[in-house]
Amino acid sequence: MMPIWRSTLTLAGAATLTLGMAHAQTPDLSEPPAIDGDMVGDHGSHTIRMGIGLAESSPQYLSSQYFADILAERSDGRLTVNVFPNSQLGDDVQMMEMMQTGTLDMSYPSSSPATTYVPELAAFDLPFLLPTREAAIAVMNSDVAQSMLDAFDGTGIKALAFSENGYRQLSNSVRPVETPEDVGGLDMGGLTIRTMENPVHLSIWETLGANPTPMAFGELFSAMEQGVVDGQENPWSTILTSNFYEVQEYGSETRHVYTPFMLMMSERTWDDLHPEYQELVQEAARKSAAYEIQLATEYDDWARNRLEELGMQINRLNDEQIAAFQEAVQPVYDEWAPEIGEDLIADIREIVDETMNN
């Protein structure tokens, strides 16, 4: 199979371009796995509109195209997925609302804004709960995570699979950040940090002395460019593919929260599909999610190094510095653990401990 990032893609609502040439910031990523499995029967044709937040060079987009390829190949072209990148159809919150009403078929939001539907997802927003990627993947593949996916039943949204958004890192245009005091600023004043519309994230930055400002992702670049906010927090891959380095001078490898993506479908769309199509969609979701995690893993360190090449000053915090941030945000656990569920947090920590000790 021709690597998807080197082939010419026709983007829904955008011009045709060759990713390998048009986006020189793309690393040498693994090819999509070969598509295997039997052809499904003819149960009619469906065109599925899928909106995502990130750019065409992101692991999220590349894996979404792989998802589309699986459906197309194994349905003999009867299942077509058109992917709309770059928040063309709205932000995560808007696209989830559109799925509820049936005006959008699929989306790929972060777990954080989805806590409106399943409050238990807020466990992923607790700072420093998932210390390694291996531990995070073990949690996402666990029965605990499956119960979160199942909890969407009846909300108007069918949650299909978890994948990786990644470790959130801090960037800003004001000063280097190496300690919690650098965030709060002491006599200098706290940084104004864009966050997602998520109360745990707001609590993290308030506890650190920042001025958190919820804002749609699609509005973020211009807000930083105009000085409305000083900074933001996202994985290195998102910071790179969204060109935030153009308006952010400083980065800090805080790894304060590991955020999953969630591949979702409107329940109305799901219910319109024949059971054999539903089974194929679920299988394709799991395979494409695994591929997205692989791409995100490959992309993460490369993206950080690339940002440094492009002029961003990145502070790679050591264990002692990370521990200082962990201690500073302990009040977030005290505030939110009873509401999220102490038993749930204990179950996640048990999976983490097992993974770390193996």
Automatic annotation (TrEMBL):
This is Tripartite ATP-independent transporter solute receptor, DctP family. Pfam families: DctP (PF03480). Keywords: Receptor, Signal, Transport. GO terms for cellular component: outer membrane-bounded periplasmic space. One of its GO terms (biological process) is transmembrane transport. Transmembrane segments: none annotated. InterPro entries: DctP_fam, TRAP_DctP, TRAP_DctP_sf. It comes from the Bacteria. Belongs to the bacterial solute-binding protein 7 family. The keyword Signal applies. Residues 1-24 form the signal peptide.
